[in-house]
Design brief:
Blueprint lengths: L2 H25 L5 H6 L3 H14 L5 H28 L4 H8 L15 E3 L5 E3 L13 H14 L14 H14 L10 H12 L5 E5 L4 H10 L2 E5 L4 H9 L7 E4 L4
Helix pairs in contact: 1-3, 8-9
Length: 262
Amino acid sequence: MDLSKIAIKKIRELIVFTAFLVVVLWKFDVVLDVLKAIWGILFPFVLGGAIAFVTNVPMSFLEKKIFTKIKKENKVHLLIMGQLQERYKNYREPQKYMAAGVYPYFREITSKQMTEVTDIDGHKILMFGSNAYQGLTNDQRVIDAAKAALDKYGSGCAGSRFLNGTLDLHVQLEKELAEFMGKDETLCFSTGFSVNQGVLACVVGRNDYIICDDRDHASIVDGRRLSFATQLHYKHNDMEDLERVLSKLPQEIGRASCRERV
């Protein structure tokens, strides 16, 4: 074996060993969160396999052990998926409710979202589930402004706010909202769900506590999970139970109480 192949093999082994070390430390929450984003677990293995394929250098003992483990885990995953498919292939409950005309989900609406809407069959139905509390979706001024924005900016931003998706309209709106609310800055999200996912994950961390109403919305549940904070619960709308949970926490730690309201 020439020196170039020996060097390639050593570099590949170093990459795989580093990745293995990251995975081990990851399980014990030692590695910083940024390493999780930078290091894809499969990347070193794929890179090592590609080098082995191109240079025809045999895999090391460590690589063989790791690839064997991945292969076994994939087999277990496929087995579980097969069992789930077998269990649910005959699940027909939604179809029964659809046939009876009482299935409540994914009902098609063919009109504007107002207090009364029209369904796909032309029936007039009273709308009690709308989130358009102020009726701005049908305000003609908003509709005209949206048409003008379509002509100027197109039908989408073609990117995230973080990169190339911030328009001057976004900045203008956030400045006006900040002035209206008497705040220094505001940040607009496209949905309430994304607000709770984005904000909760940023304002608390591993060494903090989140005390949650046990009937919190799914968006709050997802946001608090992303934060890695310790999660505690109190009974729904029960302030005495909240006081009980708070009284058991150390005074010097950070804490946040999560509940929803309209």
